[in-house]
Amino acid sequence: MRLPSRAACSVLCLVLVPAFLVLAQQPRRTLRAVTIDDYFQIRAVSDPDLSPDGRFVTYTVESHLLKDDKNEDRIWMVPTAGGEAVPLTAAGASSSHARWSRDGRSIAFLSARDEGKTQVWVLPRWAGEAERLTDTPQDVEDFAWSPDNRHLVLVLRDPSAEDLETAKARKGRAAVSQEKRKVQKPWVIDRLQFKTDEIGYLDRRRTHLYVFDLAAKTLRQITTGDFDDSEPAWSPDGWSIAFSSNRSQPDPDATYDNNIWVVRADTQEKEAHLTQITTNPGADTAPSWSPDAKWITYVTQLDPHLFDYATRHVAFSPARGGSARVLTLKLDRNADEPHFSSDGKIFFIADDDGALQLYTVDTTTAAITFGDGQRGERPPIGGRLTVNGYSIGNGSTGNIAAQISTLDHPDEIFSVIGGKLTQITHMNDALMNQLKLSQGEYVHFKSKDGTTVAGYLYKPLDYVAGRRYPTILRPHGGPVWSYYAEFDHLPQLYAANGYVVLFPNPRGSSGYGQKFAQAIWAEWGNKDFQDDMAMVDYAIEQGIADPAKLAVGGWSYGGISTDFIIAQTNRFKAAISGAGSAFFASSYGHDEYQRDYETELGHPWENKAVWEKVSPFYRVSNIATPTLFMGGDSDWNVPILGSEQMYQALKRLGRATELVVYPGEFHEFKAPSHIKDRLERYLAWYNHYVKGDSAPARPVSAAQSGE
Predict the structure, then answer these.
(1) Which residue range or ranges hold the Peptidase S9 prolyl oligopeptidase catalytic domain (predicted)?
(2) Residue 121 pairs with which residues in a beta bridge?
(3) For residue 542, what are the domain limits?
(4) Which positions of the chain have pLDDT values less than 70?
(5) Does any domain span residue 459?
(6) How many angstroms separate the CA atoms of 489 and 40, rounded?
(7) Which of 398, 432, 466 is the last residue of a domain?
(8) Burial of 644 (0-12, 13-18, 19+ CB in 10 A)
(9) Judging by DSSP bridges, how do beta strands 469-473 and 545-555 pair with one another?
């Protein structure tokens, strides 16, 4: 239901945007409409990491291999000043999360090779083969270099009995009995939070921190207990490791009280002495050290009662514990990825007005540097973009590497040297130069109660003014999330097939302040419904949308919104509800959100009226819209149960409906064949019920066809 929020950059935007827009406006060569298969030609560029000397950037490139029905990550490197990009890892085995050693001589990364567990591997900077550093029974989930380059801190989940048996067999060069593999033991559950997507049922195995000695190849556990520890950050002096953990008592599963802690890196104790840095009752995450090791900056949420609806702020505290200082209260925007610069300021990414931008904040004055020109500090710069990640390296060069996308181009890596922005990767240029795109427009409109709402509007290719077109409303997931100024294949695909596409950011969305986000608290499907409808009305009033040919559909909370919408109005000719839910009392204890439900709605056996008010299932008899329901059978975020219930009800009522369940898929689909099948069904359903084409196609999957 909820999607992770992202952030971006404003100091970057101030000096970078003009150069970027020149690149974005370069003429294209051969132009054609976007197709379904183009999704699998886009290479997802992410995770830039700047070398300590600021001269090179490593990054990850994900490819969607439709023929092999899998995804593959490779690590690349490019000079910061621009030049030839080179792959550092070979095809055939996914590798990701590349991190430079502090001396810049080596690059460590994560990879699961030889069908084994994910381990840390290392490459020499200039030449040579990758060498596996770690050999743990379980997957390595994260790691960080020590300042002296002699150690790594690892994040490991306690190994299962199967992990230990497999590791023992591997070291003994013996195979694990196939008969033993077939026998699955029962899950024994005794935790309050007992389920999560992509893991499944949770037992008492927890994630903890370990220090790995590169020379001795030894591993030493430095945190323990019935808690999960993550996000390790090594202090610049090498003495300590900061991390985030919910160690609240008596039960960490019952609260949002995540805090920042520090542990000695050289501890030999089984029960290491920990220093608690933050005491805020909300979530404190993403720790990062100041260059002098005296301070730790982090992200804090001050109101645990609002959980995801609460604004995430940048704060910092003394590294030995003490009073915290929150720096971004006046900004009132979600902040992420704070990092100290060499001059003592803190960079961070903020979610602001349908874009992700980079900001800096002064730790002495709390003055925030903006780059959007909307608050009077800087002249307007124009253009919209999304910064999905950045790296400022470890040195004092002032160079920055950033992962940036715009409405007409997928993510690429850019560098900032001397205040000049330069695109230094070109993974998607050749494809994008072939495509004719709909130029997404960021529009504002008034909702029913007069509230100003914004969203992105895409017109069909070859749009003719004065002509009305079939229109698809696409509510977003979250609900605390937003549509951003970044490339998205789906609206381009719809626009290429003759549709107007509406991407609203209704109340509940991030990027417009905490009050805007919490406006739907315990009242889902009311104000956000009004705002979604307001964008439809806006498109009709502008003479763009055909009121007789409207469709709606979304995924996650977007699927939930779709259920709300079709239960309140029959103005839509077709709907697609992906990974949605409508009967929330039945989701309690079945999905992963029990704590959120209790915080926002109370217990279902005590607050029945509230639960029923927010559940569109009780209005199902009002639905006349032909609706396609779909989801993954392994999704514990929004389980397929919700789609099954809505499908069953509409089928019983004799409505036009269909249910598609994808085997082995979590909330976020992985298999390229399933993603292609889903896109084909999207178009077939809308084309049939909105445009009046032939009956919806039923694509045959590779598994069904025997390919």
Answers:
(1) 486-691
(2) 109, 132
(3) 441-696
(4) 1-29, 172-182, 269-271, 370-383, 394-397, 697-707
(5) yes
(6) 10
(7) 432
(8) middle
(9) parallel
